[in-house]
TrEMBL record:
This is Nucleobindin-1. Keywords: Calcium, Coiled coil, Cytoplasm, DNA-binding, Golgi apparatus, Guanine-nucleotide releasing factor, Membrane, Metal-binding, Phosphoprotein, Repeat, Secreted, Signal. Belongs to the nucleobindin family. Residues 232-267, 284-319 form the EF-hand domain.
Length: 430
């Protein structure tokens, strides 16, 4: 699947292949006609990423919509004019879009069911919290769905980098919290030894070669020479741009830009070194990309065009940039932020303890109820056993089917006694 820049100016998901270093065996080697590398989808990080990509993929199968997408600008997309073109796409495209929406609604319902069944809440009303589709129409994909999908993805992608920075800050604070807790649990001698070791690792990490500012002539020349294998004296910005526009869509997207920083990051981070944290390396990569976007991306579309790139090479920052400060030169958080974070951890720990105690009490209650039920079961079993024994020890009555009738006249007392005896014997045989 290949997304066109028109729509992805807004969505910032135009890259469909990871940018990779270009191998050049000779400086002036003629380019060879080689098949393009297989495309690899780049996850936007959105929880509806698959739905977003499938919708765009289906829309691009329609010739009319594809043509409109080619000529659309960011303003057309943002104000919803492009969404109105949905009414003109083919029937098979609309049918496939309807199917995709029903699948997405079903997926969201399953997520809600797993989380909220116990609350006995209305799933239909809960679907309204998802802003990337129209919850009032859960069966067909309309122009409003496309408009909502684009606007929501735009907003979410704009906040994505800020969320990544916040996650990294919390990661660093947790790491420092665990370090302090670990040292607090040691005696003085061991604590001093560990503190010395940690300080040595920190100093070792700081001893790295100078890092060139992202997007500067020094940084780009280094990529040109060491990655592309070309003569640094023949550096040409336009050629450089085309070499690293790996999907040949006329722009450098975020993934293609981040691939340019690999050589600089390798100066500071090595996964084999104990002192180097790969989470910090990814944060450094993000900061470098943001630096270029801030200084080169003139229209703020999260893409660098050839014109923007060439204009950036004419600025002072390109030839004489400020020295780039890596993460180790500036703390990711303040002491006050760390204190608030630790207080938050303590509150969560107390809450977990309360929940654990509640669960323990409920478990004890269940055990007591279980014991009571077991005692009641044994009591019922004893009653049944006793009743069964008594029923087996009693002889059944052998009452004849025809009732016994007394003679109308007995001649003597003896005959009466004899008759009574017979009656008794007929009722209770020996």
């Amino acid at each position: 699947m290949e997304f066109k820049p028109g729509l992805l100016v807004l969505l910032s998901i135009s890259a469909v292949v990871w940018s990779v270093p270009i191998d050049r065996s000779a400086a002036n080697q003629e380019p060879k006609d080689e098949p393009p590398p297989p495309e690899e989808s780049v996850d936007t990080g959105l929880y509806y990423d698959r739905y977003l990509r499938e919708v765009i993929e289906v829309l691009e199968t329609d010739p009319h919509f594809r043509e409109k997408l080619q000529t659309a600008n960011a303003e057309d997309i943002k104000n919803g004019r492009l969404s109105k073109e949905l009414d003109l796409v083919g029937h098979h495209v609309r049918t496939r879009l309807d199917e995709l929406k029903r699948q997405e609604v079903s997926r969201l319902r399953m997520l809600l069911k797993a989380k909220l069944d116990s609350l006995q809440m209305d799933h239909a009303s809960l679907l309204k919290q998802f802003e990337h589709l129209d919850p009032h129409n859960q069966n067909t994909f309309e122009a409003k769905d496309l408009e909502l999908l684009i606007s929501t993805a735009t907003k979410d992608l704009e906040n994505y980098d800020a969320e990544r920075h916040e996650e990294f800050k919390r990661y660093e604070m947790l790491k420092e919290h665990e370090r302090r807790e670990y040292l607090r649990g040691l005696d003085q001698e061991k604590r001093e030894k560990e503190e010395k070791k940690m300080q040595e690792l920190k100093e070792k990490h700081r001893q790295h070669p100078k890092v060139n500012a992202p997007g500067s002539v020094a940084q780009l020349r280094e990529v040109w020479e060491e990655t592309d294998g070309l003569d640094p004296q023949e550096f040409n910005p336009k050629t450089f741009f085309k070499l690293h526009d790996t999907n040949e869509d006329g722009v450098l997207d975020e993934q293609e830009l981040e691939a340019l920083f690999t050589k600089e990051l390798e100066k500071v981070y090595d996964p084999k070194n104990e002192e180097d944290d790969m989470m910090e390396m990814e944060e450094e990569r993000l900061r470098m990309r943001e630096h270029i976007m801030k200084n080169v991306d003139a229209n703020g579309d999260r893409l660098v065009s050839l014109d923007e790139f060439l204009k950036s090479t004419e600025t002072k920052n390109f030839n004489s940039p400020k020295e780039w400060e890596t993460l180790d030169a500036q703390p990711a958080y303040t002491e006050d932020e760390l204190q608030r974070f630790e207080a938050e951890l303590r509150d969560k720990e107390e809450e977990l303890k309360r929940r654990a105690e509640t669960l323990r009490q409920e478990q004890e209650l269940l055990k007591e109820r279980g014991k009571a039920l077991e005692a009641q079961r044994k009591e019922y079993q004893q009653v049944i056993t006793l009743t069964s024994k008594q029923s087996r020890g009693t002889k059944p009555l052998n009452v004849p089917l025809q009732p016994f009738s007394l003679p109308r006249s007995w001649s003597s007392s003896w005959s009466r006694l004899l008759g009574l005896s017979r009656i008794y014997l007929s009722w209770y045989p020996v």
